[in-house]
Write a structure and sequence with these properties.
By secondary structure, the chain is an alpha/beta fold. 32% of the residues lie in helices and 13% in strands. It has a 6-stranded mixed beta sheet, sandwiched between helices. Helix 1 packs parallel to helix 8, helix 2 packs across helix 8 (266-290) and helix 3 (130-138) runs parallel beside helix 4 (187-202).
Length: 297
């Protein structure tokens, strides 16, 4: 009885490591207080502008309202719920156009405000109408306007501002994308976001992406948020966001929104504060370019 010779097994190639040897973007971990104080004391370059308006746009369920709440949590140093969110998702929970102010320690309002809109959805007749968001971007949409997915506001409507103030106008378009679903985004939805981007570009507005749900996307980051800029998965998702909307990596900021916590966390706060710091600086730079006479002030 002769036995057949066993085929020698090839050595298996180990999987590539899930993270880079060192962070590809430096974060000021541990400096939450100084970051927060910098934003509390931020001075806009134009004396004509009291607040810069940041328009928050994104797919239903991407975390738009949660990001606004998370920013507020950082400055209030507690969990808040100013912008209502829906844990069950399904359809957009935001129904009205609303401005959210962020308060400093002394109760005064910080020099940036958020405009929250109804979430975008792929199908026509569902989610926010693109023309309504463009109207908001230009500053013509009245506070409290109730979004109607089937019809957009017109110049004849009472919800249309015919003579908006500077403070009503958008100074930065903030696109919110979920890292956990960016690979599955519908082409029609992407086209809607690009249509809004095109108008923002015509107005020379800075444009950024807040990439949410990084903890749901990468186990490495879920265990340790400080791994966000060593995680290859997170950088891959950021590149996907960039490819979809054409916004450079330098203007894409991964964050973890608060959604189940009962207390704030320093590392979560630092990511949010650093993103906001970059956004406010980009916005102020654009404002300065519009007001060259005030550069020396």
């Amino acid at each position: 009885m002769g036995g057949s010779e066993s085929t020698p097994q090839r050595p298996q190639t180990p999987p590539p490591p899930p993270e880079f040897d060192k962070p590809w973007r430096i974060m000021p971990w541990g400096n939450k207080d100084s970051l927060g104080e910098k934003l509390r004391n931020f001075k806009l370059c134009s004396s004509d502008v009291k607040f810069v308006r940041l328009l928050i746009v994104g797919e239903d369920g991407a975390g738009k309202s949660s990001f606004i709440n998370s920013v507020n949590n950082v400055f209030q140093e507690r969990i808040t719920c100013g912008a209502l969110v829906d844990a069950t998702s399904g359809t957009s929970f935001t129904k009205n156009y609303k401005t959210y102010y962020i308060k400093g320690k002394d109760g005064s309002r910080l020099p940036f405000v958020f405009s929250d809109v109804m979430g975008l959805e792929p199908a026509d007749g569902q989610g926010a109408h693109v023309k309504d968001i463009i109207t908001a971007l230009k500053g013509f949409l009245e506070e409290g306007y109730k979004f109607n997915p089937a019809n957009h506001v017109s110049e004849k409507d009472s919800n249309y501002k015919t003579n908006p103030k500077v403070s009503d106008q958008t100074f930065c378009l903030v696109n919110v994308l979920s890292a956990s679903t960016v690979s599955l985004m519908n082409q029609k939805l992407i086209q809607k976001m690009k249509e809004i981007r095109k108008v923002a570009s015509e107005y020379n507005l800075p444009q950024v992406i807040i990439m949410t749900k990084v903890d749901e996307t990468c186990p490495l980051v879920k265990r340790n948020l400080k791994k966000v800029y060593t995680s290859k998965k997170i950088k891959e998702k950021m590149q996907e966001c960039s490819n979809l909307l054409g916004i450079p990596l330098s203007n894409i900021f991964p964050v973890k929104n608060y959604h189940e916590e009962v207390d704030t966390n320093d590392d979560t706060d630092v990511l949010i504060l650093k993103a906001l710091d970059q956004i406010v600086n980009l916005t102020n730079d654009a404002l300065e370019n519009q007001n060259p006479s005030e550069k020396s002030e």
